[in-house]
Automatic annotation (TrEMBL):
This is tRNA (Adenine(37)-N6)-methyltransferase. GO terms for biological process: methylation. Belongs to the tRNA methyltransferase O family. GO terms for molecular function: methyltransferase activity. PANTHER family: TRNA (ADENINE(37)-N6)-METHYLTRANSFERASE. Residues 4-127 form the TsaA-like domain. CDD domains: UPF0066. Its EC number is 2.1.1.-.
Length: 155
């Protein structure tokens, strides 16, 4: 039997933050000093039986192939709508259970499944390989903020 426990929610009402449920606040202990975190979240607004059946889509990327399998995308249309984001840590309020960040690509109220520390020794790949249609993407998350994504996506 599989059981998921939601540990908090994305809060984008006044800035970007993650509100951790009371039962999981202790899990924030010793997070001081981490500059980035990996956040696993549930794309609840895309979670319905029809969207879970989508296995391929028509050309979401301007330079991409005409049809692409969803496992070759970061789309929230998935058999299990689990998404991942790397966030910067602007601060942590341990008493209130809040992680502050400058941005996360999830909607307000999105359920958070898990949070993991970002470790360069296991999360950075020095020599990556991407398909040709991904050429021109920013080389790091810091460069993504100023990247013109409208030139990359068809939506």
């Amino acid at each position: 039997m599989m059981e998921l426990k939601l540990i908090g929610k994305i809060n984008n009402t006044h800035g970007f933050k993650i509100d951790i449920d009371e039962a999981y606040k202790e899990a924030l202990t010793a997070m001081d000093g981490f500059g980035h975190l990996i956040v696993l979240w549930w794309a609840n607004q895309m979670d319905n039986p029809d969207m879970r059946k989508i296995m391929a889509t028509e050309k979401p990327y301007k330079a991409g192939p005409d049809t692409i399998g969803i496992f070759a995308t970061r789309s929230s249309f998935r058999p299990n709508p689990i998404c991942i984001s790397v966030i910067d840590v602007k601060g942590i309020d341990y008493n209130r259970g809040i992680i502050y960040t400058s941005y996360i690509d999830a909607e307000d109220g999105t359920p958070v499944l898990d949070i993991k520390p970002y470790y360069p020794c296991s999360d950075v790949v020095r020599e990556t390989k991407l398909p040709e249609w991904c050429a021109g993407l920013p080389s790091c998350i810091e460069d993504s903020a100023n990247f013109d994504w409208s030139n990359y996506f068809n939506f």
